Amino acid sequence: MSTTTAYRADGVTLREVALRDGLQLVKAWPTTSQKLEWLVREHSAGVTHFEVGSFLPANRAPQFADIRELLSCVTSASAIHTSALAMNERGIDEALTTQVSEIACVVSATEAHSHANIRRSRDQSIELVRYAAKRRLESNHGALISVGIAMSFGCSIAGPVQPAEVLKIAEACLSAGADLVGIADTVGFAGPNQVYELSAALHALVGSGRFVVHLHDTRGLGIANASAALDAGCRVLDGSLGGLGGCPFAPGATGNVVFEDLVYLCETKGFRTGIDIDALIDVRRTQLEAMPEERLYGAIARSGVPKNIDWAAGGELRRQ
Amino acid sequence: MSTTTAYRADGVTLREVALRDGLQLVKAWPTTSQKLEWLVREHSAGVTHFEVGSFLPANRAPQFADIRELLSCVTSASAIHTSALAMNERGIDEALTTQVSEIACVVSATEAHSHANIRRSRDQSIELVRYAAKRRLESNHGALISVGIAMSFGCSIAGPVQPAEVLKIAEACLSAGADLVGIADTVGFAGPNQVYELSAALHALVGSGRFVVHLHDTRGLGIANASAALDAGCRVLDGSLGGLGGCPFAPGATGNVVFEDLVYLCETKGFRTGIDIDALIDVRRTQLEAMPEERLYGAIARSGVPKNIDWAAGGELRRQ
């Protein structure tokens, strides 16, 4: 597999990350069969790309303990593109024994966050990317390697982050063997102008199909930020169904940008996603059955898609 | 008063419309003293422009029956810019006997909505604007005249609306004597590209300080649409505190774009609003005391403004 087949350069790719980023901090999580139902129903609605879990030790992150089982069910069954997080050498080695389509690594934009988050320096994190690329070659595995740059728009520990610094890290990751780099607004500090500027710079550096914008909706700017990213040439965006997620250190903060609202945004901007929004909204019921105590977010699930929009005619309103 | 003094051409003006548009459909509303507390507290937080009610017969719209009393208290007390809706000749005549700073008229973008909403044609609505300008001159009143073009981005009855049609109506309103024209996404159909295009065209036609973008957040695109309007040169935007409002024909639909989130958006985009967001958020308590059954919306009230943002340094994050 290569980025050219896994990610379209001529359209937009939306990745649903609720089963990883959305479960990062929850106390209760879906069973493996509930996760599978979730994935299969979303895939039927037209979603193709999912982050499905993390290769962390089960005692540290029990919600991801079924990652191997999940991957073996999903990848043998369908054309679903799966991504899973690997935080260290052990995780990468394990990932390469599975059918995962993409191994996701993380590098922090600031030294302070890097040490607090994973007790490695940024350079050591980039070395991990190099390790992943080397091991992939040795094992002749087809997985892509992606790197998310955490705190790309400002850091809760170190404060401001210069775009030039993020670009330097992105280049280092690509040189180390990453296929894709992502800029993540980990704690929801970004505004649309900031997202536009960094996305445009990254677009100039690596082109459309090779960078991801990963946004959180903490302060209500998630969809505006996504719109700005698309304006700047970004063609790969992350979101979580129902906006699942949050942060234990920020009471009331929401999680990732709401996936179904992101789909609606793309459609209004003329990007055909191939996703049936009504069918997608219906998967929220599976989510709530699996996690009845979680609060879901989102506007399009509440209001519905306008009934008189003619998607086939490019999203124009239809006469009644 | 003229548009040049009432609306800055060199910055952004945000208008809080909850006391009119937000009360349009509610079953219970604040008392006059609660409305005054609301206005005074918001004004203390830095808000300068308010839509405060409507000159409708008290039996049709009892929530606005105190408009004269409200205006006499507010305009004598402060530098608050007040706007109130007038839907017919009687309303305009009454407005001109008060100290209102701005008389707001409405013209529909489509004939079908115009007849359904006010039982007048679009041309007859434009004639009403001409009447307002003539009566203002005769009475030597200093009020501005503004016109909101309802359904500018698509009509719930007639379907698609061509931008050229909206621009033609805007020109006709200005020729008839309006000082400002507004484009309203009355039922929340607009997406950011559509808002950008129409705003840019209107900006080319009339300049920054003479047009308003009035958005609803029905489908979660309100803030993204506001960001697009600002990008296109719009410098006057409406919002309602707590997103107060809604539509009886669209269950679950929210009202105007959330005012406090709009303020935060502007600040992240480098527009200094002069509004203290924390103090503004605190006014939601007054809102809830006055209308305990209303649901309030908004993200920044939930998450708070990032503590480490240095507004004085242009909204940069501050090192901890």
From TrEMBL, chains A, B:
Top-level division of the source organism's lineage: Bacteria
Classification via InterPro entries: AIPM/Hcit_synth_CS, Aldolase_TIM, HMGL, PYR_CT
Gene3D superfamilies: Aldolase class I
A Pfam family this chain is assigned to: HMGL-like
SUPFAM superfamilies: Aldolase
The keyword Nucleotide-binding appears for this protein: no
GO MF assignments: lyase activity
Keywords in alphabetical order: Lyase, Metal-binding, Transferase
Residue span, Pyruvate carboxyltransferase domain: 12-281
Protein family (similarity comment): Belongs to the alpha-IPM synthase/homocitrate synthase family. Belongs to the HMG-CoA lyase family.
Name recorded for this polypeptide: Hydroxymethylglutaryl-CoA lyase
Natural source organism: Bradyrhizobium diversitatis
